Amino acid sequence: xxxxxxGKPSVALLLGACAAILLVSTxxxxxADPYKLGPGDTIExxxxxxxxxxxxxxxxxxxxxxxxxxxxxxxxxLTPAQMQSRIETLLxxxxxxxRLTDGRDQAFVIKPGDVMASVVEYRPVxxxxxxxxxxxxxxxxxxxxxxxxxxxxGFSLLRSRGMQPGAADPADLVxxxxxxxxxxxxxxxxxxxxxxxLDGRDTFDxxxxxxxxxxxxxxxxxxxxxxxxxxxxxxxxxxxxxxxEDAVKQTDAQFATLKKQQEGEEKGVQADEEELERVMxxxxxxxxxxxxVSESRRxxxxxSTRRLQTSVELMRLQRQREDFLRQTxxxxxxxxxxxxxxxxxSNVRLADLxxxxxxxxxxxxxxxxxxxxxxxxxxxxxxxVVVRRLGQQWDRIPASVDFDVEPGDVIEVTLRPAAxxxxx
Length: 424
Description:
By secondary structure, this protein is an alpha+beta fold. It has 3 domains: 41-121, wza like fold, CATH 3.30.1950; 125-157 and 380-416, Outer membrane lipoprotein wza domain like (Outer membrane lipoprotein wza fold like), CATH 3.10.560; 170-365, no CATH class. 52% of the residues lie in helices and 17% in strands. It has helices at residues 11-27, 80-91, 145-151, 158-162, 170-198, 216-284, 290-364, 418-423, and strands at 42-47, 50-58, 64-66, 72-74, 95-99, 105-109, 115-121, 125-129, 135-137, 380-390, 393-399, 410-417. A 5-stranded mixed sheet has the order 9-8-12-10-11. Strand 10 (380-390) and strand 11 form a beta hairpin. Helix 5 (170-198) runs parallel beside helix 6 (216-284), helix 5 (170-198) packs antiparallel against helix 7 (290-364) and helix 6 (216-284) runs antiparallel to helix 7 (290-364). The chain is elongated, with a radius of gyration of 48 Å. The chain starts with 10 loop residues before the first helix and ends with a helix. Residues 1-32, 366-378 and 420-424 have low confidence and may be disordered.
């Protein structure tokens, strides 16, 4: 059939047609091309009237799936509608058996309208390059490059730096940095608590370091632990101090009692000495017998012994009181020494953690800013290439962030300086 000549087409129309043909030829497909099934897609086949005959299977690497009742069918390369038609054709008029609730078997003849075949899960897409967490993602209907990149954590230079030989994975670096930040916060508040303990305070400033960013619940748990430690330490120290102070007070009370007792015994000894002197004079004059002298001497000996025992007990109490006072000073000084040593060790650990965090920070900030590099920063632009299998070959399709991806696509992202991108 020949077309009638209707005049010369315009130059603009010809250029538009050529551009459309070029676009189709370079991409290998038109935007209206239906989706073709491939290995990795999950298909579900159900038979109406047979609830037990619901089979879900994945298209194998050879492009086939098993059919209910036996056999296989090749569906790779077909559209979902073509797959439905092919499976419906193969299964119609087949006889399947269904077990009834009473245990009997019933034959069931499949009619074309009884078969339903659909795609329940598509092949995943893959994101690689300058994104925070590259890898495999489940495909969702009408998925775009922008959505896939968002699920991958956004555009980032961390991955490109982490892919250098000998460099650690950025996710591991972030994890290590967070771990060091937690240890840094613990040491920081440990030092704050020690300073408060040295000053005799029961509270301390719970403001975290300005250069540390941790979840509020993590900081709160660290602060609470140090508060509990400060409370326990101060309570133990004050309890021990009160015990020693009470011991000194009890010793002073006993000392005062014995001192009064010593004064009374001193008077008794003095009286017994005077009595013995009077008896000796009377005995020398022949006015008293010798037994009276012996009694006076025994009384003087007994009172002198009691005075001596009281003096010894006073000396013991004096030494005990001095021991309690020295122990009080020793507890205070030893506690101060231990706290100062602990503070020095914590300062050393804090300095070491700060150095290690700064080293990790350099690795996590290759541009000098945050790890994730925003696209609209005016400095970097993403180059996106979608790698898609078309037939037996792979096609590389330059794309924008709003490009629609298909199951099985590989999205390659490269962040480039705006000037370099324009020059290319």
